[in-house]
Specification:
This protein is of the alpha/beta class and 301 residues long. It contains 12 helices and 8 strands. The protein has one domain: Alpha-Beta Barrel (TIM Barrel). The strands form 2 sheets. Strands 3-4-5-6-7 form a 5-stranded parallel beta sheet, covered by helices on one side. Helix 2 runs parallel beside helix 3. It is globular.
Length: 301
């Protein structure tokens, strides 16, 4: 078992059965696609884009073992295990760890707002102590627009000092590059083995240049290969052109509700309209949105 490899991650969307349960075999097959033809170095299931907070505890607890049985490499998966109840977060993290997936993405407890850094420190500290394993790797999840519970650089540094490499990195979904820079500067970034992942692939080279580890993004469900092209392009006009393509693709994704748009794209790829099923309260793209999204994708190609 080892720390998650760096690079381009998709925050994988989640397929649901008609009864609302997670379609686990379909999700596994989808992640296998992302890790091969989909161009991803890794996947982050049951995060925000994966509607993780809408997936039942029963399904979330069963998922890591199913991934293990499918043989999906342990260092290419970061499971979302955050929950408002510390005990639920511990149970989800333990299920991942016991299946061999030591890398977890942990939202802060997001029901109560205006909480102190001391309270947030206690949440993460209780998780570390309850698992009790030195090779656990926690990626903190900063997404204040959704959680309304920001994670300060000071809190990150405090946890890192207390627990060392167990506090392995942070996914920054704020959309603010300066926030990512502040976390990198506070922790040392990849030079000190702390992996910051901005959530927009449009920032990929800006991030890599200051010491981030790559990107974990919702839109890389369909655009990861464009990002890989930009990463591998020679500096100069080739890279500029490749980054322009990445930014254009990200701009298209940003025009639509992200989760149903990514699911609609997968429905088109597979010919399986069940992919458009959303967990309440989210809904699929409206017909007019779907038509416009397809036209925008065709224009990109």
């Amino acid at each position: 078992m080892s720390k998650a490899r760096r690079g381009v991650y998709a925050a994988a969307v989640s397929p649901f059965n008609a009864d609302g349960s997670l379609a686990i075999p379909k999700l596994i097959a989808y992640c296998e696609h992302l890790l091969s033809d989909g161009g991803c170095d890794g996947v982050a299931p049951t995060g925000t884009t994966g509607e993780g907070t809408s997936v039942s505890m029963q399904d979330r607890l069963a998922l890591p073992e199913a991934f293990a049985k499918a043989g999906i490499e342990r260092d290419r998966v970061i499971f979302g295990t955050g929950a408002p109840a510390t005990g639920d977060c511990i149970a989800l993290t333990k299920a991942a760890y016991d299946a061999g997936y030591i890398n977890v993405l942990v939202l802060p407890p997001y029901y109560y707002k205006g909480v102190s850094d001391d309270g947030l420190y206690s949440y993460y500290a209780q998780l570390v102590d309850a698992i009790g394993k030195d090779d656990l790797r926690i990626y903190m999840y900063h997404f204040p627009q959704m959680s309304q519970v920001p994670l300060s650089p000071e809190l990150v540094v405090r946890l890192r000092k207390s627990f060392g490499p167990i506090i392995a990195g942070l996914k920054d979904s704020s959309g603010d590059f300066e926030q990512s820079r502040a976390i990198v500067e506070a922790t040392g970034g990849v030079a000190e083995d702390f992996d910051v992942y901005p959530s927009s692939e449009a920032m990929i080279w800006d991030g890599l240049s200051i010491g981030t580890a790559g990107t974990i993004s919702g839109s890389t469900n369909i655009f990861a290969n464009k990002v890989q092209t930009a990463i591998k392009a020679a500096e100069g006009t080739d890279r500029d052109a490749a980054m322009e393509a990445v930014k254009n693709a990200r701009a298209v994704a940003s025009k639509y509700p992200l989760m149903p748009a990514m699911k609609q794209a997968e429905a088109w790829r597979t010919g399986d309209d069940e992919w458009t099923r959303m967990a309440p309260p989210l809904v699929p793209l409206a017909p007019a949105q779907s038509e416009a999204f397809r036209a925008d994708l065709n224009a990109l190609d």
